[in-house]
């Protein structure tokens, strides 16, 4: 159930993020900022099942709204225009982004009351 993701989550650590950003073509200056940023993730769900994920940092705040399993257009924090679908798979929130013939998956899970993502 997506409800277990509802709340405000603070990023504690991020591993291999610089390599990931390089692989998707993010420039050096933006990668430097991205590597230092530890955003909060705020997840809410409304009565109609619309999920809102807001990523807040001193650098930038982004927000996406979606229904599980329904594709939508997303503009990422690094300004990529993607076709995105979020699903619930094995207790993980899986965000699949496609753009320019490329694809990436972001997985988020809650374990022992703590969220993690990669």
TrEMBL record:
Tree of life domain: Eukaryota
A molecular-function term among this protein's GO annotations: retinal binding
PROSITE patterns: FABP
Gene3D superfamilies hit by this protein: 2.40.128.20
Region (Disordered): 99-118
Entry keywords, A to Z: Retinol-binding, Transport, Vitamin A
Pfam families listed in its UniProt record: Lipocalin (PF00061)
Family matches, as SUPFAM superfamilies: Lipocalins (SSF50814)
InterPro entries attached to this UniProt entry: Calycin, Fatty_acid-bd, ILBP, Lipocln_cytosolic_FA-bd_dom
Domain Cytosolic fatty-acid binding proteins: 7-24
Family per record: Belongs to the calycin superfamily. Fatty-acid binding protein (FABP) family.
Annotated function: Cytosolic CRABPs may regulate the access of retinoic acid to the nuclear retinoic acid receptors.
Listed name of the protein: Cellular retinoic acid-binding protein 1
Gene: fabp4a
């Amino acid at each position: 159930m997506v409800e277990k993701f509802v709340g405000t989550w603070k990023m504690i650590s991020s591993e291999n993020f610089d390599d990931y950003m390089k692989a998707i073509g993010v420039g050096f200056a933006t990668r430097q900022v991205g590597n230092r940023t530890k955003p909060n993730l705020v997840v809410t769900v409304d009565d109609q099942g619309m999920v809102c994920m807001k990523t807040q940092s001193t650098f930038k705040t982004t927000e996406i709204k979606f229904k599980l399993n329904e594709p939508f257009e997303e503009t990422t924090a690094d300004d990529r225009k993607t076709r995105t679908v979020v699903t619930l798979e094995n207790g993980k929130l899986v965000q699949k982004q496609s753009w320019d013939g490329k694809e990436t998956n972001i997985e988020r899970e809650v374990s022992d009351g703590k969220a993690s993502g990669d």
